[in-house]
Structure formats: C-alpha cells, structure tokens
Amino acid sequence: MTDSPSNATTTRITVLISGNGTNLQALIDASRSGTLLNTEIVRVISNRRNAFGLTRAENATIKTTYHNLLKYKKDFPDKVEDGTFNDARRAYDRDLAAKVLEDKPDLVVCAGWMHILAPEFLDPMKAANVPVINLHPALPGRYNGANAIQRAYADFQAGNLARNMTGIMVHYVITEVDMGEPIVVKEIQIEEGESLEDLETRIHQHEWKAIVEGARMAIERLWQERNSKP
What we know:
Elements: E1 11-17, H1 22-33, E2 39-46, H2 52-59, E3 64-66, H3 69-75, H4 86-102, E4 107-110, H5 119-127, E5 132-136, H6 148-157, E6 165-172, E7 182-189, H7 196-228
Parallel strand pairs: 1-2, 1-4, 2-3, 4-5
Antiparallel strand pairs: 5-6, 6-7
Helix pairs in contact: 1-7, 3-4, 4-5
C-alpha cells in the first residue's frame, strides 16, 4: 500500500461477489477506462463456485478465488440444531480476511456479496486501514438485509411505501447489517403499473453507476485520511 493517489499511485481493490457480476463489470470497466483513476482490481473472491462474476474477472485477467462456506460447516458443525453455524462462519470470515490481506488491497468492495461479514473479517480490515464498502438496493435504514427490492415492492403494492420511493446506497460496512455510514444515496420512485421484474432491472441500472461513484468517493476519502496523518 502506498501514500498518495495524486501522483499516479495505484489504488488496489479487492471485490467480493456472489452472482452474475454486473456490478463487478461496472467496476472493471471504470478501472480500465479511467473513470476510477489509477485503480487496479487485484482479486475477485466469490462464495459461490458458479458465479458468473468469476468468468467476468477471468476474462479481464483478474485473479479469482472461490471461498466455500460449506467446507467450514463440515469442519465446524452446529453445537445445537439451530442452523446458525456460528463457529463455521467465524472461521470462514477469519480465513477470508487472511486471503484478502495477502494481496495488500487499499479497498474492499462488496458487489452483490451475499454473506454477512463478521468481526472476524472486519476487525483485521480496520487494523490494516482497509475500508470495506457495500452496495445495497434500499435507502438508509430501510429494508436492511436480503430481498430488499422485493420487500419495498410489496409495501408499494400494499400502499405502505412513503412517496412510492425506494432507492439504493453505497455504504461503509460495519457489523450491523446495512447500517454503516452512507457514501452514495439515490432515491428511485416505483412507477404505477411497474412489475417487480421491471423495477429490479431499473434499480440494477442505477447500481452500476452508484457502485463506481461510491468506490471513487471512498478512495478519495481513504487517501485524504492517510495523507493527513503525520
């Protein structure tokens, strides 16, 4: 890791994914085009073997890693039959942090990463001064967690969505799910007669721009803070 982005220093980014990788593709395109100036995606990590985002990364000659939770569930079975696998998840996140830090990234971006990050991951990132940001398809404090778009749409259908407004945000990741400080927030109004599928498509199109903008702003803040230290 280096000291300043202003003199052609490269900001190293690790991206965590679980699926198709359209948001990853937006980051790849922005890095290659210069929209994200002086950045390099050093690795893409997926918790799903068949995530197409891994193919996108390979096509862009970016290193990839598949990090499988199932192995940890076998190694650390539940002590009680509650299905939480807390020991497995803690071990998984501890090893994930080690894998990420091997590449010495400056920033970690969760781009469709469907796994709640535990302190065993977040604490080593904080100690290494590596911020973690996430894209979430809802406004701050609304529809935290999974299925945010579907839950907002259900409230819209029931007449319970204020101003018919949902949105997206990019935020810093903390232990409380989707409750970290927002970096980018964009409101998106659900239109009368719009299907859930149409809404999802429209939200995803906004996400591609927001994740790039959020990454850019997080990078600027990161280097400002590093350069202000004596």
